[in-house]
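Action item from last week, closing it out:
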Amino acid sequence: MTAKKYLLIGAAVAAIAGLTAVGEVSATNPPPVCTPTVCNSQTHATQPQVQCGTKNGCPVCVNVLPSTPVDTGSSCQFEWKVFNIGTFITAFKMDLVNKRHRKTSDLLTYCRYSANPVGRIVLHLFEYKDPELHRLSDFICTALQLTNFWQDIAIDLEKDRIYIPLEDMERFGYTISELKSHLVNSAFKDLLASEIEFTRGLFKEGAPLCRRVGKGLSLELKAVWSGGMKILEKIEKNGYDVFNKRPVVTTFDKVKIISRALTMRA
């Protein structure tokens, strides 16, 4: 891979990080949206109401994109396709409005905007444009997002956010008041076990992606995949008590994850 490609990937990661930061602080102040009235980018001819993908003198785009311009030799329209900023803005808006998700399908819709674009950006930058690879990437990215939700149930509660589908809570007889009380009873254990089983299934659906890309990216994906699965395992080993013992990946775990990635057959 050329140094230029690494620079572009670094810029993409920085852009995603910047957008995430904007989303985190926008709970009370929704992020500004780039419009044709403040930006002179031609992108708005086909993609109105989203960040243009370059600085271009736009005060909104300057705030959310990397501080160092990247000379990719490509147009603003190409940058839009790479960064796909509109999906993240949509996810941030959804987070502001929807602090509960009634159905699993509602939660998966949120993941489609908040998580799946990240994998597609990486594949795009590595020049993998096969829709089937993007589909497999979506499984992994959604699984990673859900894993983070189960890992951070207590943290999200502090922000009055509940990502466990309400229908699932009702099905297992576990109430919101019990969740806010951090009650780990049999109903909660069964509920979280069900969510983990579903999430693990998504990881397995996406696993073939790891062997369908080049060696370098393949190893990275296997490590990410293994890391997500390790978090699910630790939640189970902790007796599903994510309130008093948040599952984290230790240094020893990282060694095991790397070893697993090196020997993994997707």
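Closing note: The longest helix spans residues 215-237.
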